């Protein structure tokens, strides 16, 4: 028995102690904590694909300052404490020049806090909680819009399209930072327009049965149904159950990750038809460069990129641009400061859109630091049509005409 | 009124699936006093079996179950023989942590094999729900409910009428007495572990057209499953069914009439009160 | 020998800052010490009294939130805040103990799990107090001067010293309890609760006392977590997985041993870090396998087995 024990422990030890995949020498290292295991694993994978493509392209074109870029991914399992550990490791052990990634807000807050203390720039590419850029962290930059900006395109739509102002609205959102922020932002705007909120329902993450909630909502017969889901699974079930119960508002409007990923239509089929999604956009599809990127990504991975992939891909280009302009000396600490200075002067266009970091006030009164000043334009209202998510508002970014009211 | 009936119907339908997951756990606990934390992963395996049969060969999950349930039955027996049995003498706590390790192992193997993508299985006949009297009843949920009821009835008859079933019940009541009566307790334990695993797999197969699946989906099922089993009384099959339906109803009516945000807390509160005032569960007998 | 070994191991661990200034190693050291404290706390009740709790995250989280809230809204120094966190943990333990201890065996375990989930849901929804899912973030810690010098909170050394002090304090407390009358009562309860009752031990009182002591330690550890990681949200400090991890540390180290949790925490942290470093996606497969192997062949825990092999009398 003891021999068996010894054998298994030794073999595990050998496995663990074998030479890990170490970073190559002489590269410019970018650290990316992402969830590679656990319930968020699909998102880690999306970013991994996006980063690889961008790094490949940049390196094929000669790299930056004669050196190749390298992204080091570390798994944080969607756990806050582990996100902090992984960020520490990337900064102090791997000596990365800059961090990106994070995926969910809780983990991103920890990464931002570590980055701020250890004086390493952190370019947030997807996490959206306002708090991340609202605490005066001068080492933290964010390209994507904050949660409270997500509903901007929807707000414009109901204000600008004749007859679209809701007569009443039901708001159903997950009880997370993400859900809460977006719901607050949307409800603040609706209330300012005198729209009665007939339901304000915060549901627990991973709810298995939404039928009771939508039954309750149906009794109030709302004119608009606003749904927020950070988890794709919640978005799918919520929409499915709402339609099954026979809730028939003039518009179903989804906010957030769950409603903007290809899985949503893939899994719901015809039930996804005409559902709106107001979110961070996936770049302007009418722009040639963005279109070319979509095709290239599809060619390599067989799927069309959405919000997450576009954000991840754009992040690497923003980092590369800053690295290009920074005067790198080989002294990690000095280089990090140089990169931070370079990021402060960033003024470029990526597939995600224009980016320039600045300080301003958000829709709910948060004082942002180093938040992309174009963020308010990076919210788009899209609509699911025959399995494709197409932008419908604002007009200059529209790919097709909107269908409203929804007669499905 | 319509709201009330609708939440009642939804509660019972969802509750029957909770019950289905709970039954497997309670059967295993009844005989071996093992709380199997890997139970959720067994459900997940059943789900993936049904999912792949549908995606690759277009076999309806309610049909492919005929294959996957026996496969999981065998897998459960093997897992007991070679993995779980040596641990049992170490005590309940060790067994429990051991199955926690097993659950990590299985879920992450699935992650490696099938990626973490969220998947759903859409049956063509499931697009429109039935609408008797204006109440919405999703088709796959209804079929699952009916099959779950049949399966449980079968299980009940098996335990009540067959020799093997009687041996299982005897072992669950008193191991030593069962051994004295000439029952091979070890064989019964192996069989029961297989049975519990097969029931978990069956629950997975039945759930998949109404839910979604991904490798770590077991995590969100297993806690509910505990609540269900304890509500009814650990080890009691009718108890697990009653517990499942009760939890389904509490969550459903709680969400409509109390608070959506606190519906889960309400479930736990009822669970706690049952524990305190009737620790043997609604249907259990005091040990 | 058996007295020297743990002392030497402990010294080696606590002397880590003298041996290395590698901030990441020290960070791992801090998290090992935090887990040690939690393992010791859980062991007080789960090991000595045999009452398996699956809800210790409730006390940890309550401590973490208390410390953060006192600092952010009342400006109470976090060092006092940690003690307050422990006190709140212990206070929470009183009603929980009085209700849950009416149950025995797996029923008690499941009741604690339900209580912890209820506490989590309350923390999630009581927004005016806890900021709900948004969580609480500290951006700067107060200045502390020691021997005329400012402590540098950007370095790990001060945190390491505090974590080590908490862990040692917890271990001394455990040692003291195990040798006290209370410890004797707890052991008697673990062996046979009815018999303990029959020889005149007030079992409920003893168990509640052990739970409160255990919850106090968990609460202090929670307070430390808040300061060290500077951000708490309900999912981070109240999850079921945290409760289970505490159990696992105590069991892997060795139940009813004072040094067991240190061994368990060091082992598990090292193994987790090594596997994660090696495999980006598959590391939890090996971690699960490791859990199974240890329990399969070392059911009395690593330190428990070591004690048995070392030539001397049993540790009390």
Helix content of chain C: over 70%
The arrangement of helices and strands of chain B along the chain is HHHHHHHHHHH
Strand content of chain B: under 5%
Shape descriptor of chain C reads: globular
Please state the CA-atom Rg of chain C, rounded to the nearest Å. Answer: 19 Å
- Overall pLDDT of chain B, averaged? 88
Q: Which regions of chain B are unreliable across 5 or more consecutive residues at pLDDT < 50?
A: none
Radius of gyration of chain B equals 19 Å
| Alpha-beta content class of chain B | mainly alpha
Rounded to the nearest angstrom, the distance between the terminal CA atoms of chain B is 43 Å
Low-confidence stretches of chain C: none
* Beta-strand percent range of chain C: under 5%
Protein architecture, described:
- The complex is a heterotrimer of chains A (408), B (287) and C (316).
- By secondary structure, chain A is α/β, with parallel strands linked by helices.
- Chain A has helices spanning 2-17, 41-60, 80-93, 105-117, 152-160, 177-192, 211-218, 232-245, 257-260, 262-268, 288-301, 307-325, 332-344; strands at 28-34, 69-75, 98-100, 122-124, 140-142, 169-174, 197-203, 224-228, 251-255, 276-280, 348-350, 353-355, 357-361, 367-372, 379-385, 388-393.
- The mean pLDDT of chain A is 89.
- Chain B has eleven helices and no strands.
- In chain B, helix 6 crosses helix 8 (185-207).
- The radius of gyration of chain B is 19 Å and the shape is globular.
- In chain B, 59% of the residues are buried.
- Chain C has 316 residues and is mostly helical.
- In chain C, 74% of the residues lie in helices and 3% in strands.
- In chain C, 58% of the residues are buried.
- The chains are: A alpha/beta (408), B mainly alpha (287), C mainly alpha (316).
- The interface between A and C is large, with 48 and 40 residues.
Give a topology summary:
The complex is a heterotrimer of chains A (408), B (287) and C (316).
Chain A: H1 2-17, E1 28-34, H2 41-60, E2 69-75, H3 80-93, E3 98-100, H4 105-117, E4 122-124, E5 140-142, H5 152-160, E6 169-174, H6 177-192, E7 197-203, H7 211-218, E8 224-228, H8 232-245, E9 251-255, H9 257-260, H10 262-268, E10 276-280, H11 288-301, H12 307-325, H13 332-344, E11 348-350, E12 353-355, E13 357-361, E14 367-372, E15 379-385, E16 388-393
Parallel strand pairs in A: 1-2, 1-3, 3-4, 4-5, 6-7, 6-8, 8-9, 9-10
Antiparallel strand pairs in A: 10-15, 11-12, 13-14, 15-16
Chain B: H1 2-32, H2 39-57, H3 61-84, H4 92-114, H5 139-161, H6 163-173, H7 175-180, H8 185-207, H9 218-232, H10 237-257, H11 263-277
Chain C: H1 4-14, H2 16-19, H3 23-48, H4 57-74, H5 78-100, H6 105-125, H7 127-130, E1 136-137, E2 145-146, E3 149-150, H8 157-179, H9 181-191, H10 193-198, H11 203-229, E4 231-232, H12 234-237, H13 240-253, H14 260-278, H15 283-297, H16 302-309
Antiparallel strand pairs in C: 1-4, 2-3
